[in-house]
Amino acid sequence: TLSDEFGVTERTLQRDFHQRLVHLDLEYRNGRYSLRRQSNPGAIPEMLSFIQNTGIARILPLRNGRLITCLTDNQEPSPCLIWLPAPDITATLPECFSQLILAIRQCIHISLVTERWYPSLEPCRLIYYSGSWYLIALQKGKLRVFPLADIKSVSLTSERFERRDHIHSLVAEERFISALPHFPFIHKLINTFNL
């Protein structure tokens, strides 16, 4: 037997097989496991990357190929539903959103208009929190937060900047994200009292 050949117990073999096979897109029929016939193997790594990159991984206790297949299978109702408050999409201009994504990805300075003009910003990240999108950017080395609903226009410049990893780590922290709705008030308070 396989356990004798490798000098391990059957239980060890079962555990090892389970750990290695959990990422495969398997289906169970008539007492047998086989690779799912209609799967797109290239989609699973892409979906796992999407889950990790967007922060959804924080709420999923399990992340593997089987889960991805189950969640993306349109033949039956999904066993999971992630319910988030819907943002006011009408307040956010789609072209602004796509320009911001491009600027963040390619490290391009932007200028934007809210109730006033903000030149030469380094856009760091867009974060969706508690029903609203926020743009986190640096202006002359200082952190700025803009609710996307307040942004009227975005312009990309030809100037580039170096991504600052410590800023990306900071803005991904839960304490920072939970403070996003209060940043305009905090910024106004700091400027009023020159803190």
Automatic annotation (TrEMBL):
Superkingdom per UniProt: Bacteria
PROSITE patterns referenced in this protein's UniProt entry, alphabetically: WYL (PS52050)
Ranges where the WYL domain occurs: 121-154
Annotated protein name in UniProt: WYL domain-containing protein
Species of the source: Escherichia coli
